[in-house]
Amino acid sequence: MKMKLPASVKMVIDSLIARGYEAYAVGGCVRDSVLGRIPDDWDITTSAPPDQVKAIFSRTVDTGLAHGTVTVLVGSHSHEVTTYRIDGEYEDGRHPKDVLFTSNLAEDLRRRDFTINAMAYNDEEGLVDLFGGISDLQRKVIRCVGDPMERFGEDALRILRALRFSAQLGFSIDRVTMDAIVRLSPTLEKISAERIRVELTKLLLSACPEYMQAVYEAGITSVVLPEFDAMMDTPQHNPHHCYYVGEHTLESLRYVPSDPVLRWTMLLHDIGKPSCHTTDAQGVDHFKGHGLKGEKMAEMILKRLRFDNETIRQVTTLIRWHDCRMEPVGKTVRRILNKIGPDLFEKLMQVQYADAMAQSLYHREEKIQRINRVRACGEEILAKGECCSLKTMDLTGRDLIALGCPPGPRVGEYLNLALEQVLDDPGKNQKEYLIDFLRPLIDQK
Question: How many Cβ atoms are within 10 Å of 34's Cβ, its own excluded?
Fold first, then answer.
């Protein structure tokens, strides 16, 4: 099998071989190349020890010398070059206690997680596939290299990686590998929140985000996202719904683009429903206040998973307002734009669309039509540059102080009163009008 290596990768491999060492492209880049996908990056494995890699190349970065990794810079490209190694004992289910360098490629490939990631390639020898990676690619199967209990026992994050690869590639998981995943899923509690977040996000951004159901069925969410399990157990006996809360959530993920904010919003948009669940005398379920409750719960979850503040802001804002059934009326839409900001308006429309599409057919057509009309109304407001916030209002706190309003909380109160006028009628966004409107209030104080 012949692969087309990028020039920078070929240069690194050829340079190492010219000095008497072995060198191969390895791992995910080989897998993706075989599948006809474009690799995100190219990693290289070699028999050369780290100090020799540094001696051969003029521009390097000490990425992880203790684990044998040096980053080689070639023009504008960078490639991690790692010495063949044998991992020592994994004492914490996360990291090997020590690393032993070896000159044997087979030993290096043997320590890798899955067969499809344990292949190597160079132009001289072609594809090195010692563990049936090509066969598993052809069968579309995720299978551990060797004993899955050992592989997952070494690094529990591999449990999530197996499911993530399954979602990304549309592959099934080998039965023995899946059995080990179910047995060892509790060991994920040893893994840092940051690593859990990265794997869950990659799965959610895949072409099959609804594969979160497999994460649930394997017992993984009970460890890394227990709030999701409560959604899977909460019914929705209501004309607007045909699924349990969790099933509705999984379905809704299919209707938003592959965007981190949107996918995490849909995953968590109904997270508040289990705690807001009530059933009336007719047996109809209700979830009053679940948007506000979900906003608070989502903030807690996202902080626990070490998300950045901006992502937390966007996701929680969208969750708070996702169930706001606004009418396509200018003053109403301007108020929503004021609450969420213009940057989130289109995302809110996408969230509401996905939410409606994952509900029953009851009034679905009307719901989608309303969303489309609201979107059109909002787009028109934004295109016209109509004022929707204090930032764009033609009146400032300094103007009020000049009128005799003492500095302090009242300035904000009066500005908000003026903004209400402008949100009702953008034509009133004129300093003279707003001063005339507020002057009697200021004077009587």
Answer: 19
Which among 158, 201, 165, 196 has a CA at the least distance from the CA of 180? 158
Nearest residue to 135 (alpha-carbon basis) of 119, 113, 158:
119
What is the rounded distance in angstroms from the CA atom of residue 59 to the CA atom of residue 434? 63
Residue where the block lists tokens 């072409």: 207
List pLDDT tens digits, range 296-338: 999 999 999 999 999 999 999 999 999 999 999 999 999 999 9
**Cα 390 from Cα 439, distance rounded (Å):** 18
| Residue count (the chain) | 445
CA-based diameter of the chain, in Å?
Answer: 91
H helices of 121-268, where?
133-139, 148-154, 157-169, 175-184, 193-204, 212-217, 221-224, 226-232, 245-252, 260-268
Count CA atoms closer than 13 A to 277's CA, side-chain side: 16
**Alpha-carbon Rg of the chain, whole angstroms?**
28
Q: What is the C-alpha to C-alpha distance for residues 37 and 39, in angstroms, rounded to an integer? A: 6
Backbone angles phi, psi at 62, to 5 degrees: -75, 90
For the segment 8-45, what is each residue's pLDDT rounded down to a tens digit?
999 999 999 999 999 999 999 999 999 999 999 999 99
Are the C-beta atoms of residues 419 and 393 closer than 8 Å to each other?
yes
CA distances to 156, 198, 217 from 92, rounded to whole Å, are 9, 20, 25
